[in-house]
Amino acid sequence: MHFSPANITALIVAASFAGGLNIYATVLTLGVLARTHWVALPPGLSGIGETWVMVTCAVLFSIELFADKIPGFDMVWNGLQTVVRIPVAGLIAYHASSQLSPQMQLLATAMGAGIALMSHSSKTLVRAAVTPSPEPISNIALSSAEDVLAVGITWFATHHPLVAATMAVCLLMVAFLAARALVRAIRRPLNKIFGSERDKIAGTEQRPGV
Fold it and tell me: What is the pLDDT of residue 108?
């Protein structure tokens, strides 16, 4: 891959999106590609193929592979991962952009963390809507799709960064719209419930004055 500013930016966009879904799968995929010399990564990411990094991510990915598919516990797990996915995505962006100017490197770091935050938040909102489902199949299918997408987008970003970045942006927009629709769908019945309760309270307060 030619390490032009455009390609580095595209790699950061795609990898950060994948990191928001599953940071361990993202780092492990980059590590395997770097370790096997299947693809050249930006010089700043040379350490991502070190043994301790890959082993740590492989262990944590194995844990997430099961923890993220248990209804109810997956919400706790994703909540805890907020303090991992976003900072690590920012760290990857920082090292990936080491060839750029210091100002651009800081901007790339902020962009990477921001994209990971949006991806992670959208995933959590969608998962919150699916988790209450009485059958576990939908939860397992959604989690498996996220794992495959994280690995696929990361691999694609190292071969076709601009295409992968475009896919990531489109998926982010779809995820945002889906999360927004879910929030509205959840708020409607809640507004009806709490709205009727407010009406009852207002009615009882007005009676003594009649």
Answer: 95
